[in-house]
UniProtKB/TrEMBL annotation:
GO CC list: cytoplasm; nucleus
Cofactor note: Binds 1 Mg(2+) ion per monomer.
Keyword Zinc found: no
Reaction catalyzed: dCMP + ATP = dCDP + ADP; CMP + ATP = CDP + ADP; UMP + ATP = UDP + ADP
Coiled-coil segments on the chain, per record: none
Location in the cell: Cytoplasm; Nucleus
Residues binding ATP: 16-21, 129, 172
EC number: 2.7.4.14
Name of the featured protein: UMP-CMP kinase
CDD domains reported for this sequence: ADK (cd01428)
Keyword ATP-binding included in the entry's annotation: yes
Catalytic EC class: transferase
Length: 190
């Protein structure tokens, strides 16, 4: 009954916009726990779970895995961490993700961090990454970007209408982006 609700910040932005990079820095400076939905799905795929093939097929097409799968992984990670301040990176990616997360967890984000970056820069970054991600090829990158525009931007618009979006110019160098991020996370003294 007196259950304490965790604090959540959603970290959104196109593929390669620097969500993972900036989350790692936020963790170091502000003591959040970073949960990347994409990383959780990749781990689930590699664990040989019954959903593995489905997850792999969806990711290789840049498609959004059904909410129930992703939400279960997020909830499990939140509980197992024992922590109460989370950066949820790369989720919710569509309206269905958003509505289902809210319905299942009853959690509303404190705010949404949106890393805005043009497509050419995203492509350049991902093609330079070389970490062996199966979805880091030009065809899949373009599909990921298209899904971002069609499905994920509406989620950002939804939160914008609620005054919850903190938008950041993510085309700048990593340290400059982090300077802007820091301002948002630093408590304001009246
Ligand atoms: N880099 C970072 N910042 C830079 C900067 N300011 N200047 C220059 N270079 C910069 O960065 C990408 C690369 O750019 C790195 O090499 C970095 O050094 C450099 P990174 O921090 O990794 O960016 P990020 O936004 O995290 O990119 P990522 O590729 O992880 O984003 P995606 O949103 O595409 O990937 P994600 O893992 O979230 O999702 C993958 C797939 O999983 C989705 O396409 C989907 O199929 C599936 N998925 C779901 O179905 N549901 C979910 O809820 C989540 C994922
Ligand atoms: Mg990432």
């Amino acid at each position: 009954l007196a259950e304490k609700k965790p604090k959540v910040v959603f970290v959104l932005g196109g593929p390669g916009s620097g969500k993972g990079t900036q989350c790692a820095k936020i963790v170091q400076h502000f003591g959040y726990t970073h949960l990347s939905a994409g990383d959780l799905l990749r781990a689930e795929k590699n664990s040989g779970s019954e959903n593995g093939i489905m997850i792999q097929n969806m990711m290789n097409e840049g498609k959004i895995v059904p909410s129930e799968v992703t939400i279960k992984l997020l909830q499990k990670a939140m509980v197992e961490s024992g922590k109460d301040k989370f950066l949820i990176d790369g989720f919710p990616r569509n309206e269905e993700n958003r509505a289902a997360f809210e319905a299942v967890t009853k959690i509303e984000p404190e705010f949404v961090l949106f890393f805005n970056c043009p497509e050419e820069e995203l492509e350049r970054r991902i093609l330079n990454r070389n970490q062996g991600r199966e979805d880091d090829n030009i065809e899949t990158i373009r599909k990921r970007f298209k899904v971002f525009l069609e499905s994920s931007l509406p989620v950002i618009e939804y939160y914008k209408a609620k005054g919850k979006v903190q938008e950041i110019d993510a085309a700048k160098p990593v340290e400059e982006v982090f300077e802007a991020v820091k301002v948002i996370f630093t408590p304001k003294v009246e």
